[in-house]
Here is the input.
Amino acid sequence: MGEFFIWIPMLIMLGIATYTDLRWRIIPDKLVMVGLVYFLVLRLLYADHPYYNYLLGIAAGAGLLYAFALYCPRAFGGGDIKLMAVVGVGFGWQWTLLILLLTLLAIIVYALGILLMKGRRRRRVIPMAPFFLLIVFLLNYMMM
Here is the structure.
């Protein structure tokens, strides 16, 4: 029952983020703030792990993306980093690391596919939110 209040809102939030990321190349701060508040309150009321697990999820998801962004500027947008913080507080650090790893692998496969199909080496911006949505949806499907 409690997992319903985690997976469904997360999928809805990631769906909205995907739409805005594809349409305008932004992930609205209001969406991220609503997600953070919702999942923080939810995890205070319903937590299947110690609370620090979810706080570590923020550090694991957003922290790793932020570190990558510092190392390689313009690799990730600020919205992607903040969105990963929401994923972290919603799922905890273990799931967040898995989601981040699978998302990055999916993006690499997609980018390689574009290179092979078009044969160009032109730099292109790839929105991350659709990949977050895809991976979370597939994990949810596999958990059922």
